[in-house]
Amino acid sequence: MPQIDIAATKAAAKDLSEGGDALDGAAGSVAVADLTGQLRGSSTAGVLADLQSTGRLRLSDAGRELATLAEGMTTLADNTGDATGER
Hints:
This protein has helices at 6-27, 43-84. It is mainly alpha-helical.
């Protein structure tokens, strides 16, 4: 039967959760469509706006996936603790 290191699993889950929060926060920073200069008003700006939306969506999705993984790891650690009497 595999052994679960409860403390290490919880610590890793916390790190993953923080990473997910950072990715979610970074999604708001994707601002390629706000470029100034020669690209403003050009057809390239429209393409960049599409890329911006895709970038934000991917960062947001990755953040949610990390949060889900962290939640699962925390549940694993908690259930292991309950089953073994450790915490």
